[in-house]
Amino acid sequence: MSATNKSIFITGANGYIAKHIIKQALANGYSVVGTVRSAEKGEALAKLVNSDKFSYEVVEGVDHKGAYDQPLKNHPEVSVLLHTASPVNYYATDPLNETILPAINGVKELFDSIKANAAQIEKVVLTTSVMAIAKIVNFQIIGVNHTEADWSPITIEEGKTDGALAYAASKKFEEQAAWKYVEVEKRNFTLTTVAPTFAVGPQAYDEDASAPASTSGMIAGLLSLTPSGYVYPFAGNFVDVRDVAKAHILGFELDDAQGKRLIAGGENFNFHKTIEVIQKHFPDYKGKLPAVDSTQMPPETPFINNKKTNDTLGFEFIDIESSIIDQLNQFFSAGK
């Protein structure tokens, strides 16, 4: 798909991944319409993006009936939609109604709105998560060699007992609802889903650097450890957020990506390795963080097997050491 005169519509435009998608799409020549929760947030984002090819629409609730009707009617030029918006509240007091059902109902409402108001939209890309593919306990992937064909065993009953479990359930059942919709309903668009693993790396815009996003914030959080501090033995598959964004764009650009589940996964990594990277490349932290030896960690297992995705996308992912260095360079620069 040529970017010439092409416009994309992206929900949840203020998100960590979404901002990278916006930045890359604009750089590739696309015009972008993003949804935000308020005009104040929209103006702040427009100032940050600083492009006459970016505009925004206010959508206050992702699952409100008809929430996307007018925003889509306002943009008949849009031919691609990326749905990155998703309710996230790990401390929800009512996980079912605050997280799980809004995600499921939100994707249905969005697809109904596309069908009724935006027949020109040809391709839809949905941001899902590795949590929809594998069982996750304390944010760690359980099991090995998970592929694009796998589904997490989590149930809605399990999800509604806990805020973090609710997010995992919401991603699984939102994605399943999306696939069921395109299977059952007569619609004018193809669907591709992108499931990132543990996304790290810099913010899309330096102005955001001092407020690291959810997953990448855990990397910056290691800087506050002391020499006697405890290093949580977290290990998983890490991926650079810039590659996640690139996967979304190729998800609608490539004909071979249509109708597929894609896993945006990079390489196995852990917090011990991360601290070693910090101490190697940022000498000020030598001796200030716990002494670690990543070779003493349990043998790494191949959590993810996303060969099919890599064959489809056809690009080499950024190595995670570079991701961490870029993220922290940006973070430290913001503090000066």
UniProtKB/TrEMBL annotation:
Residue span, NAD-dependent epimerase/dehydratase domain: 8-254
**Which SUPFAM superfamilies does this one have?**
NAD(P)-binding Rossmann-fold domains
InterPro entries to which the protein is assigned, alphabetical: Epimerase_deHydtase, NAD(P)-bd_dom_sf, NAD(P)_dehydrat-like
Q: Does the keyword Nucleus apply?
A: no
Task: Identify the Gene3D superfamilies for this entry.
Answer: NAD(P)-binding Rossmann-like Domain
MF (Gene Ontology)? oxidoreductase activity, acting on the CH-OH group of donors, NAD or NADP as acceptor
Q: Which UniProt keywords apply?
A: Oxidoreductase
Q: Which Pfam families match?
A: Epimerase
Record has Oxidoreductase as a keyword: yes
The similarity comment for this entry is: Belongs to the NAD(P)-dependent epimerase/dehydratase family. Dihydroflavonol-4-reductase subfamily.
For this entry, the protein name equals: NAD-dependent epimerase/dehydratase domain-containing protein
Q: Which organism is this protein's natural source?
A: [Candida] arabinofermentans NRRL YB-2248
What does the record give as the organism's lineage?
Eukaryota, Fungi, Dikarya, Ascomycota, Saccharomycotina
